[in-house]
Amino acid sequence: MFFFNKIIRRILMKIAIDCDDAAIDFKNQIFDYLKEAGYDITDLKYSATHDCDYPDIAFNLAETIKDKKYDRGFIFCGTGLGVAMMANKVPGVFAGTCHDVFSAERLAKSNDANVLTMGARVIGTELAKMIAVAWLKSDFQGGGSTAKVERMRTLEKKYLK
Length: 161
What we know:
- There is one protein chain.
- This protein is α/β, with parallel strands linked by helices and 161 residues long.
- The chain has eight helices and five strands, in the order H-E-H-E-H-H-E-H-E-H-E-H-H.
- It has a single domain, classed as Sugar-phosphate isomerase, RpiB/LacA/LacB (Ribose 5-phosphate Isomerase B, Chain: A, 3-Layer(aba) Sandwich), CATH 3.40.1400.10.
- 50% of the residues lie in helices and 15% in strands.
- It has a five-stranded parallel beta sheet, with helices on both faces.
- Pfam families: LacAB_rpiB.
- InterPro entries: RpiB_LacA_LacB, RpiB_LacA_LacB_sf, SPI_LacAB/RpiB.
């Protein structure tokens, strides 16, 4: 039953994706790959309708995660670092930059993160596809990480006044 619950959750998972101007081609390739693989993914294309840069793009996607419009999100820029920093300013959003499969799996399994960021100037798209799928297929495992994740969420609330 547990196996089927994981499959159903993945089928029902709604994913958002966006990027700044440094990562448009990169994002389009990841988006197309995940769409063809059957994921329910939406390209927010925030910068297409707003005069903005990566802080606004990342903030917009993070707010859609906070508001539960999407379960998980991808944000891309040149390095993945700036968008992660900005996304992490939104309460309830936990973003991490990953440029390898192991880190992406741990981002979900150990840290229960809901946003993954990558840098188009750091890795190639084929590796990025593997990282994206590894993260999407990984679920929070709890165990020894549960108390640490709960502590992050508790400490976050210190500044949510």
